[in-house]
Amino acid sequence: MKIAFISDIHANVLALEAVLKDIKKIRADRIVFLGDASTLGVRPAETLELLESLRCECVMGNHDEFMLDAQKIYKYTKDKLVIDTVEWSRQRHSIRHLDFIRTFKKDLRLSLSGDVDVFCYHGSPASNMENVKPDSGLESFAPHMGPKATTVFIGGHTHVQMLRNVGGTRILTSGSVGQPFIGYDMPPKKHPWAEYTVLASAGRRFTAEFRQVEIDNDRINREILESDSPMNRFISE
CB atoms < 10 A from the CB of 13, how many? Predict the structure, then answer.
């Protein structure tokens, strides 16, 4: 079994297309989306439609919730640029797009092999707004950890690929398809590629692979700068 985990597309449909080509090349058996599909970037509707066409399991990110509850963003940020851009994104969603987002789940538990399962979320097991970093506390993980290290935890949200080993339990963040960050500092600096993560069973063991995919940054930046998104200058290179 080989599962591709994609996250934080943020309406960058060209990056998503590049990642899906790579997933096809490596012959993944399954795709799981870990949240934040269609805000901040410039092609919200097309991104959601492509994601829906995959018929994959989807986890609810904080930005996905912002599309359904316009007031929830104020619990997350006071940044006017982000708030205005999220509203710009919402205006480009149809009722059908919102209905698709409503099918997203808070979390998922999947079987990778007979001995290993995978717990999927967006930010943390407790909240899609919580950042999980190398030095974060693990209070939200404790209720989901058993006596044996047989659960792999994986989320998105931080836009930074990470693998953390806690007593044999692996905690991963998958990186970002649309806006992969170099580190945790703000304002963020971006990598010039798209990112996702693959978990694969290998008998009673498993492997984890962070993948980086080449994208057409010139084309992406032209689309961004030609748009009327409030954030077009900020998210361009």
Answer: 24
